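Narrative of activities, Objective 1.

The group set out to show that a structural description can be obtained from nothing but a protein's sequence at a throughput compatible with the screening campaign. Below is one input-output pair from the validation batch, recorded exactly as produced.
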Amino acid sequence: MGETIAQNRRAHHEYSIEDTFEAGIVLRGTEIKSVRAHKVSLADAYARIERDEAWIIGLHIAPWESADVRFNHEPKRARKLLLHRHEIDELLGKTKAKGLTLVPLAIYINDAGKAKLSLGLARGKQTWDRRREIAERDAKRDMERQVADARKG
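Output recorded for this entry:
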């Protein structure tokens, strides 16, 4: 994995990620320039499989400032994801049968200079799951703090 452009931090809080996939993104014109300039937001994005194709919806890529209006792109348009047929079939089967969701986790530029999207096959967490996770994290942090204080003397 190369340079990380944007991460979906809420994804790990709201979902338990069961599996991850790497997908290419079909970008037009000035979109790749905006991606390389880190002008991307995954906040409201989600992935969907329609007509045997994978799509990411709600991904915001800011318009390129120095481009003419007619050559610029629409910031929140649906973009096609590039996956192998067997991956699409697997994702479609798991989302239909098990009730899982496709959540974008991160966008990055790989070593070959291509924009890639990390997709997570996720199950939504209940409120009590999130509370328990936060309590466990706080308890672990307190224990580590006490151990560090004990070492200092």
